Structures are given as C-alpha cells and as structure tokens.
Fold:
Amino acid sequence: MVQRRMPRPSELLPLLKPAPFVRDATARRLRRAASIDDLRTIARRRTPRAVFDYTDGAADGELSLNRARAAWNRVEFTPTVLRDVSTVDLGRDMLGARSALPFAFAPTGFTRMMGSEGEPAVATVAAQAGIPYTLSTMGTTTIEDIPTAARRWFQLYLWRDRAFAKDLVERAAAAGYDTLMLTVDTPVGGNRRRDVHNGLSIPPALTLRTFLDGALHPHWWFDLLTTSPLTFASLESTEGTVADMINRVFDPALTMDDVAWLRGAWPGKLMIKGVQKVDDARRVVDAGVDAVLLSNHGGRQLDRAPVPIELVEPTVDAVGDRAEVYVDTGITHGADVVAAIALGARGALVGRAYLYGLMAGGQAGVAKTVEILTGEITRTLQLIGVTAVDQLRREHARLRPIG
Structure:
C-alpha cells in the first residue's frame, strides 16, 4: 500500500493573501474599471457636474443617443464553435493605412476641459495603440501641437468666413494630417439642455454654483487654474454656450458645392461626417469623397435622428466599393465595434468612451479605454469563432427586430 505524505503547511498554496498595495492613486482608481461604464462612473465622481454633463449629454430629450445605445443592445451574434481562436488579428485597413485596431478616436471639442492633459494625451495613446486620432476644429490644442507620432486626421467645420477654413485646411496638410473630416450636421447648434441647466459657458465661468461644485472637485479646479488658459485653439471668440458659438460662427449655407471645393483643395483622404441618409451617402460619394461617417453627432444635434448602426447595411449596399463606410454614436463596448464591421462598416469611431477615461484618469485613463475595448473586441471575436477582424461578415451578426 502506497503511503501518501501530507504536505507541510509551507507547501500549501494560500487561499487568501493580501492584495498588493498600488502606490499610484490613478492606477488604484483605474485598476478595478472593467468596462467603459465603470470609467463613466469614475468620471462622474471626479468631474464637476457641468463638465461631465457636457460630455455625457445630448440634445433635447436625448432620444437620439438613447435609441443608438438601444440599437447596439439589439445586436445578436452567430457563433461558430470548434475553431482554433488561440490567436486573433485585430488589424484593419482604414483610409489607406493599416490600423492596429478596427476603430479610431473621434473628434471631440474642448477636450482640455475634461482633463488638462487634453488632446496631446489622447493622441499619444492613439499612437501607442496604433490607431488614428482626429483633432476637432473646436479642439483646445493647435493643429501643429498634436504629437506627430500619431496618425492624425483633422475634423473641419466650415466657417462663414471661407478664408479661415482654407487656412485650417492648408495648415493641416502642411502638418502632415492624412485625412480631412468635414462635419455636415451642424447648420445650427443642437439644444443641449444639460448645458443650459448647468449654466455652462465656454470657457467655464466661476459663478457661485460652479464655485460650490468646485469645492467638491478641487483637483479639477487646481488643474484648470495651474495650466495654460482653457480656450479653443482655432477660435477667437468663445463667449456663451457651445450652441451660441455654433450659431454665430458656423455656416448654415453649407452645400455640395463646398464638398466639391474641399475635394479640390485637400490632397489627402476626404471623409464626410454626419451622413444620416442613404441618398446623401450616394451624393457625397459621387462627388469624390473617400469615406462617409454615419453619425448623428452622438445625439447632440437633431433629437429623433436616424440611428447610425441601422444605416450601415443599406449604405454599404448603395456605395459598394467606391467609398469606405464608418459609424459612430453610442459605442460603449468592443462588441459594438465587432458588430459594426460584421454589418459592413470599415471601422468605428469612439468619442465619449475615451473622454470618460480622460476624466477618470488623464492619459492613463485613455489608455485604460483602449485596453478595455481591445479586450472586448478580442474576446468577442474568439467567442464567435473568428480569428481576424477582416474575416467578419454579415453572417456573424444581425440587428434583432424591435418588439
């Protein structure tokens, strides 16, 4: 009979052990974030209400944003089992170059308001992740001051003064930006009620209400008051709300003639952002653009607007291989990105997701956003039996009917 020796106490693996202490406060804050929603929760705690609501909110009753998020929840995947998914390729060709991940960082206005590190921090993370970063005309960092290590796109609003727009286009080309993104869904500013209720002005004004809120978020005010002044990098006048500024400066007379002008003036790739109708996608592609971005501006312009993800399949069918189709609005999970590509999109753009990260933990928080989305994309592909983003087809996902 074989005698079994009982293990000595020193040989037993402990069932309980103290968690290692993380000295860095930001790292401690971020390590338990397992989703974009977790980052959103942290951001809400750490940021003045007016700033958080500017990022989180949408127009009027916020129906467009909520419908977009509900549509992503209607995605149903069709998994194939018994496949070797030990390695997965997340790369994707996007507007003439390979992106390491199938999404880009969308343009966001006034980014340094969410975190003093602002656009340079976001662009640095994009460079590290190997994805494109889009600088907004309403950004708080100049075209020339975005790190050149990143693949850079520039988002353009057309001014009433075309000479000013021409100057921005020429500066972006000279600085090495390879894609111009014209936004066409802002003839007037959307009615963003949260900004009105919070009394948010651009730049933020130190009213009694903001002073009291600032007492609850001293770190945010310290960063604001000890870093360079918070202003739009490409605007001279920024009094009032964002909607006031849009109505004063942006051109409501934007037409297809302007698209044709930009096509002739811009030497790189041209994308039109804010397309919400298949016929409009056809028109801009006929005018020679390289890509359309199906977007309702994150729900921040027209409430009750079309849901972008629902337009992907018919738009791809309409434009064929003449242009690339992208989609944004309401993307909060890597599975949303996978679904968009399975339905036919070339890629997705995320905005709020990285702003939550920026508010939660600066550049480290933006990197956490990429980490979360990358993990979700990888895991989703493995669970549906696909080993590369480029293998995704409509057979892999569908939008379940409403009701």
About this structure: The longest strand covers residues 269-275.
